[in-house]
Design brief:
The complex is a heterodimer of chains A (223) and B (247). By secondary structure, chain A is mainly alpha-helical. Chain A is 80% helix and 0% strand. Chain A has one domain (2-218): Orthogonal Bundle (MetI-like fold), CATH 1.10.3720. Chain A has helices at 3-47, 54-66, 69-79, 89-115, 118-126, 131-161, 173-184, 187-217. In chain A, α1 runs antiparallel to α7 (173-184) and α2 packs across α4 (89-115). Chain B has helices spanning 40-47, 72-79, 97-108, 113-126, 142-155, 172-187, 199-205, 223-228, 233-246; strands at residues 2-11, 14-24, 29-33, 55-60, 63-66, 82-85, 160-164, 192-195, 208-213, 216-222. The longest helix of chain B has 16 residues, at 172-187. Classes of the chains: A mainly alpha (223), B alpha/beta (247). The structure holds adenosine-5'-triphosphate and magnesium ion. The site of adenosine-5'-triphosphate has 10 residues of chain B, from α1. Residues 11, 16, 34, 36-42 of chain B line the site of adenosine-5'-triphosphate (ATP).
């Protein structure tokens, strides 16, 4: 490896990392947060069997499951303006990532809700609590604990999915790399490098995840 | 205090309760006995509206309710006067011992946190669990969990506590500690309606016994009469089987 290439890799590493910290991470975190809200709402609607809303939920999950994220991004960013709805690139990406991952996370949340023993609800009723009080204070916290591993997997997968936002002009890590590569034509080295940065991010998150799981099980038992 | 008339409840075409009536006075300890599947749990669940009966009337403190068409509001009003102890404890798994007892007080009854904790600790002392305030249910034995569940029931000062086989899920060596707590409650005059298989409890602690079979009350008497001088053939047979099974 010649010195010039090495220097290029070092310089670009910081540029990519900064794009990661400034764009990829906030994009993933924001999208994840909204996805979580969507997931909890959708899961609770299904669990509580709110009949009037169920067709909407089914429609939403059907659409998301059956279409690629990339196409969803194109529709929102390139398509919507032609019917008069113009969203900047970053919000478009947040919207699509959240709506997309939210559908999958809703399934984990629903499974986790259903894994909470039925007696928890009845015990809540018997001490005088209302359905929504029990939901908020007893059932959801237990479900979150159960869903923690799969929710953190979703976050890790979200980090990787943000790379798709490069296609709608969000200058996250991949697009930053493309921009650098456009000047220097070192595709192999640079794309390997950005891959490495993703790997570092995801590895750190995996560590955090197993730390979190240990922390949660410290309260004893498998819950 | 509580009078229940002609409760019926079917699951599909199966009649789990076929016209059950019972009466509980203040201070009564009523044992409900009967073979498995006779409808004891269903009866208790209907009385506390965890299950909605197909028909029946309840009079609670002089106020009458149709058990089928009772409103949600009345259900929650009635539940504030009652407490329920489950066979499998059903402690809130994400809450500590103390929180398990304060939860209903603080959230449902809007008792200030400090007052609630004071009350909870007093109740936990009564069941001998005040030294485990910060434990989670999963860190306790079955007997300890059931005692916490009883403290949770007590803390709200209920007019009556319903017990559904409170010792059936316990290892034999843990049954005693729970029964002794219940015996103490009985001595203090707590009104209790107890589904149980513990004949000693029914005979020595409760003052009334109701014997059920096939969704009906076969015999209902004060416990001395029930055991020493049962009227119904079926009851005699039941008592015999129980005693021969034990001796
Ligand atoms: N949710 C339900 N759906 C269908 N059948 C039910 C349901 N709950 C109870 N049953 C049936 O009703 C009958 C009475 O059940 P219940 O649980 O009240 O009996 P039990 O007297 O409490 O018996 P055990 O001593 O075994 O607890 C049983 O035959 C049971 O199978
Ligand atoms: Mg039962």
């Amino acid at each position: 490896m010649n010195e010039k290439l090495l220097q290029l890799l070092i310089d670009s590493f910081w540029k990519i990392l900064i794009a990661g910290i400034r764009v990829t991470i906030p994009l993933a975190m924001l999208s994840f947060l909204f996805a979580l809200v969507i997931a909890v709402l959708v899961a609770v609607i299904q669990y509580a069997n709110i009949k009037v809303l169920r067709p909407f939920i089914r429609f939403y999950i059907w659409i998301i499951r059956g279409t690629p994220l990339l196409v969803q991004l194109y529709v929102v960013f390139y398509g919507l303006p032609s019917i008069g709805i113009v969203l900047p690139a970053f919000p478009s990406a947040v919207f699509c990532l959240a709506v997309n991952e939210g559908a999958y996370m809703a399934e984990s949340m629903r499974a986790a809700l259903e894994a909470v023993p039925k007696g928890q609800l009845e015990a809540g009723y018997c001490v005088g609590m209302s359905y929504w009080q029990i939901m908020r204070r007893i059932i959801l916290p237990q479900a979150f604990r159960t869903a923690f591993p799969s929710l953190s997997n979703s976050f890790i997968s979200m980090i990787k999915s943000t790379s798709m936002a490069s296609t709608i002009t969000v200058t996250e890590m991949l697009r930053q790399t493309q921009i650098i590569n456009g000047r220097v034509y070192q595709s192999f080295a640079l794309y390997m490098e950005v891959g490495l940065v993703y790997l570092i991010f995801c590895t750190v998150l995996t560590w955090l995840q197993s730390y979190g799981e240990k922390k949660l099980s410290a309260y004893g038992g498998t819950r | 205090m509580i009078d229940v008339q002609n409760v019926t409840k079917s699951f599909g075409s199966f009649g789990a309760l076929r016209g059950v009536s019972l009466h509980v006075d203040k201070g009564d300890v009523v044992a409900i006995l009967g073979p498995s599947g006779s409808g004891k749990t269903t009866l208790l669940r209907c009385i506390n509206y965890l299950e909605i009966a197909d028909s029946g009337t309840m009079t609670f403190d002089g106020e009458s309710f149709d058990m089928h068409s009772i409103s949600k509001k009345d259900i929650s009003r009635l539940r504030r006067k009652t407490a329920f102890v489950f066979q499998n404890y059903n402690l809130f798994l994400n809450k500590t011992v103390l929180q398990n007892v304060t939860e209903g007080l603080i959230i449902a009854r809007k008792v200030p946190k400090e007052a609630a904790e004071k009350k909870a600790i007093a109740a936990l002392e009564k069941v001998g669990m005040a030294d485990r305030l910060d434990s989670f249910p999963s860190q306790l034995s079955g007997g300890q969990q059931q005692r916490v569940a009883i403290a949770r029931a007590l803390a709200a000062d209920p007019e009556i506590i319903y017990f559904d086989e409170p010792t059936s899920a316990l290892d034999p060596e843990l049954i005693g500690e729970v029964l002794s707590v219940m015996r103490d409650l009985a001595k203090e005059g707590m009104t209790m309606l107890v589904v149980t298989h513990e004949m000693n409890f029914a005979r020595n602690v409760s003052n009334k016994v109701i014997f059920m079979e096939n969704g009906q009350v076969i015999e209902s008497a004060d416990s001395k009469t029930f055991f020493e001088n049962p009227k119904e053939e079926r009851t005699k047979l039941f008592i015999q089987t129980i005693q021969s099974g034990r001796e």
